[in-house]
């Protein structure tokens, strides 16, 4: 399956007013991701950004406490940090409290229980390498880190990125195709951190991805404050940084999780595919039975025809024997026989 993101851009990338919950859901199901421009209210984005900046600064100050020492290596700011620095007045989940996104979530999780999962802000290094920032993340699936139940991820940058600062890149294929490509089949192949052991080594190697989906399969939109990338834990993605991207970038991921591996549409598709296969098998069995009956009926008809013709022949012979001409010609045939024996 070769993908050309240039051809998909119009389908994947629209402003808030051009999406409906249904169209966003359909694109998400088919392509695994979508961009919604100007979706996040500016004041909420500013408030969460300000709280995140304070929380990142505060991390340095906690380093002498025991709990903070354990977290010293963790490069994220979480929702509990945002709540703490705002005295409980703000949560990162408020960023996506937008009707389009809420309605979209209810389509994704139709028929299953779902809940808030996490808010995690991160800072990714530009090529100027701010040491406090994280290195760009390699291509991965979030389920390799968070586990397999279906999560929706809203990736929201606090500043413009994709030109001077690193952005995000994704391989825009549906979650089921991604799962198939990743080699996941619910068994654990090897010992590894988090959930990486459930995937063959090098499963998401860049050469393998390019071989499977072509060199133009990486979607890396330029993002501005207010824009959001909608994706899941079943999409291949990672940081996108080129040598021209000198500044660092801060962004936040807001995640929701369901109680099943699949989102509703995929579960329904699977159910329909299995139902259609069962119907096709039943129809094939009925057709085979009908063919058998037709052949059996043809054999019976041929036998009946044979019997009818045989009976007609017997009746004709009997009729001739019974007729007066049979009685007259009997003596003549005997005389003819006698003449032949004299010759
Ligand atoms: O923000 C980034 O550059 C990478 C984020 C990412 O890979 C993730 O959220 O799993």
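-> sequence recovered:
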């Amino acid at each position: 399956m070769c993908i050309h993101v240039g051809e998909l851009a119009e389908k994947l990338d629209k402003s808030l007013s051009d999406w409906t919950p249904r169209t966003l859901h359909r694109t998400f199901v088919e392509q695994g991701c979508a961009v919604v421009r100007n979706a996040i209210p500016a004041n909420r984005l500013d408030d969460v950004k300000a709280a995140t900046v304070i929380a990142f600064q505060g991390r340095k100050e906690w380093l002498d406490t025991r709990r903070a020492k354990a977290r010293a290596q963790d490069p994220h700011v979480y929702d509990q940090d945002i709540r703490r620095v705002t005295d409980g007045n703000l949560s990162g989940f408020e960023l996506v409290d937008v009707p389009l996104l809420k309605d979209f979530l209810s389509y994704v999780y139709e028929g299953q229980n779902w809940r808030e999962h996490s808010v995690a802000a991160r800072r990714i290094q530009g090529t100027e390498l701010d040491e406090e920032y994280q290195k760009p993340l390699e291509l991965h699936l979030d389920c390799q880190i968070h586990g397999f139940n279906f999560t929706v991820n809203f990736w929201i940058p606090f500043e413009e990125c994709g030109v001077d600062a690193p952005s995000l890149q994704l391989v825009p294929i549906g979650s089921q195709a991604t799962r198939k490509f990743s080699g996941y089949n619910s068994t654990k192949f090897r010992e590894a951190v988090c959930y990486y052991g459930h995937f063959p080594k090098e499963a998401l190697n860049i050469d393998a991805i390019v071989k499977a989906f072509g060199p133009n399969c990486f979607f890396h939109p330029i993002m501005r404050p207010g824009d959001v990338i909608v994706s899941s834990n079943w999409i291949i993605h990672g940081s996108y940084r080129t040598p021209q991207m000198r500044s660092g970038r801060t962004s936040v991921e807001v995640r929701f999780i369901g109680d099943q591996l699949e989102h509703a549409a995929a579960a329904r598709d699977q159910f329909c595919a299995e139902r259609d296969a069962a119907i096709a098998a039943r129809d094939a069995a009925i057709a085979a039975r009908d063919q058998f009956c037709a052949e059996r009926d043809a054999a019976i008809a041929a036998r009946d025809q044979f019997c009818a013709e045989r009976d007609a022949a017997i009746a004709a012979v009997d009729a001739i024997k019974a007729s007066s001409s049979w009685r007259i010609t009997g003596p003549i045939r005997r005389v003819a026989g006698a003449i032949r024996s004299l010759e």
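Residues 22 and 104 are 7 Å apart (CA to CA).
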